[in-house]
Amino acid sequence: MIASPMRSFEPVSTRRTFEEAVEQIAEQIKAGDLHTGDRLPSERELAAQMRISRPTLREAIKTLAEAGVLQVRRGQSGGIFVASELVPRELLRSRQEIRFGEISGVLEARRLLEPRVAQLAAVHATDEDFGVMTQTIERQRELAASDDFLSHEDLFLQLDLKFHLALARATRNSTIVGLMRTLLRQLEIARDMAMHAPLVPDWTIDIHSKTLAAVRAADFPLIDAVMDEHLAQLEQIWERETGRGLVRPLPDFLQPVAERSRALRAG
After folding, report:
1. What pLDDT is recorded for position 119?
2. Alpha-carbon distance 104 to 253, whole Å?
3. Smaller CB count within 10 Å for the chain: N or C?
């Protein structure tokens, strides 16, 4: 696995310091900023970065260790290490950043942004970026082929998140990466909904492979077509589960809106 540069941890600014500390570390693992075997900063450094007390940090580390996400090793070569790439869903279940009814807006925002992200990635991506995306697809393929795939569904979906963030990182634009982090985090509710629909790992692997091939070829019309198919899957699940329509694909989504506006003005 090609390691991504570790992001600094941010000051914890809410009263829920314990939960936010857990979330920050867990989110970096989910996003692929931290990998299994990576060593975190020392307890003193982590507490200073997050601006929390060391006892509060120890509670967060203990929670993550009990969940099997982190491992604390003692001795000269000790430290805090990532023990698993899988973050249990219940670990972050208490924090919900958007209301159910706002998800359609997030899906529309994603459709505005991510196809352009893929096109910009085609301009700036390096062999290292393509290697990270390829490895993520191969890891999903391994899980899909396992006899107990059902027990690996959460990890399979986390690898989906890593693929999309690797695509964002390939733009070499930190603002875009931040936007995609926010969008994908807000889509967790919709992703949970997708878990109620039959998961089709072969389709996911195939669409990721198509996306990677289109970006590598810098074929912009093909990128648009593949991203349309890619994003439509979650959108269609949302529509089916909620009975709420979404306007797609973009950029053509403005046409019906404009037609309705013209009709209202004419009437």
Report:
1. 96
2. 14
3. C
What is the rounded end-to-end Cα distance, in angstroms, of the chain?
Answer: 61
Enumerate the domain spans of the chain.
Answer: 17-92, 101-252
Q: How far apart are alpha carbons 167 and 207 in whole angstroms? A: 13
Q: What number of helices (H) and strands (E) belong to the chain? A: 11, 2
Q: What is the pLDDT of residues 200-212, one digit of tens each?
A: 889 999 999 999 9
Q: Which pLDDT score, from 0 to 100, does residue 100 have?
A: 67
User: What does the block give as tokens for 148?
Assistant: 């107990």
The reported pLDDT for the residue numbered 172 is 96
d(CA 32, CA 155): 12
3-state helix, strand, coil in the chain (%, to 5): 65, 5, 30
Compute the distance between CA of residue 105 and CA of residue 112 in angstroms, rounded to an integer.
11
CA 119/CA 135 separation, integer angstroms: 21
| DSSP labels, 37-102 | TPBPPPHHHHHHHHT--HHHHHHHHHHHHHTTSEEEE-STT-EEEE--S---GGGGTT---S-GGG
What is the model's pLDDT at position 51? 86
Q: Does residue 74 have a pLDDT over 60?
A: yes
Q: What is the CATH number of domain 17-92?
A: 1.10.10.10
pLDDT at 254: 47
CATH number for the domain running over 101-252: 1.20.120.530
User: How do residues 217-247 score in pLDDT, each as one tens digit?
Assistant: 999 999 999 999 999 888 887 787 777 777 5
